[in-house]
Write a structure and sequence with these properties.
By secondary structure, the chain is α/β, with parallel strands linked by helices. The protein has a single domain (10-65, 83-191), classed as Rossmann fold (3-Layer(aba) Sandwich). It has 6 helices and 6 strands, in the order βααββαβαβαβα. Strands 3-2-1-4-5-6 form a 6-stranded parallel sheet, with helices on both faces. It starts with 9 loop residues before the first strand and ends with a helix.
């Protein structure tokens, strides 16, 4: 079901579209999920629309992992390669963008994101980025649990695990908020300023 509304004070959360992740993920994506160029194009359309309407853009990167033990080896151990956390050029980062660095899957855990959004009266977030079943889903869950209205731009995200991508979109996201395409969201932003 497409997005039905956007609050007057909505922020865009762009999750983990950073050089170290985009480079590795782009090579591993299957044909069953949106390609990285498609995702970057749609995310940029969202960024441009939010900026055009003077709404906050939050760029989120990851610089480490949670410390707990897991069956799978940690993806982020030791020092990260040079430039790993730098945002990709396609985002067109600006000084006024809010930047949040996380060390877990979700952007609200152990960061000041909630306080920063509340300080500017944000009541809704639109979430996009990578990976659908990890950083995007965790951030959306945490936003929902913090009381934000959540919208997920389902064609502006991807995951190297097609099954995780589909499960998040089909089974998890409808329980956390509203879903729609990047164009649906841009159209809603533009319609309210006609």
């Amino acid at each position: 079901m497409p997005v039905t509304m956007l609050d007057a004070r909505t922020a865009l959360l762009v999750v983990d579209l950073q050089k170290g992740i985009v480079r590795s993920a782009a090579a591993d994506l299957s044909d069953d999920v949106p390609s990285m160029p498609e995702v970057l194009h749609r995310v940029r359309a969202l960024i441009d629309a939010f900026r055009r309407h003077a709404l906050p853009v939050v760029l989120i990167n990851v610089a480490g992992g949670a410390p707990g033990r897991t069956d799978e080896p940690a993806r982020f151990s030791g020092s990260l390669p040079e430039g790993f956390t730098d945002f990709v050029a396609e985002l067109g980062q600006r000084p006024e963008d809010i930047v949040v660095t996380k060390r877990s899957w979700g952007a609200f855990a152990n960061t000041d994101l909630d306080a920063r959004l509340r300080a500017i009266d944000i009541t809704q977030v639109v979430v996009c980025g990578v990976a659908t079943g990890a950083g995007v889903e965790a951030t959306a869950r945490q936003a929902f649990e913090q009381g934000y209205n959540v919208t997920l731009a389902i064609d502006a995200m991807t995951d190297r695990r097609a099954v995780a991508h589909r499960y998040s979109i089909d089974s998890v996201f409808p329980r956390l908020g509203e879903t729609g395409t990047a164009q649906d969201i841009v159209d809603l932003l533009d319609a309210r300023n006609v």
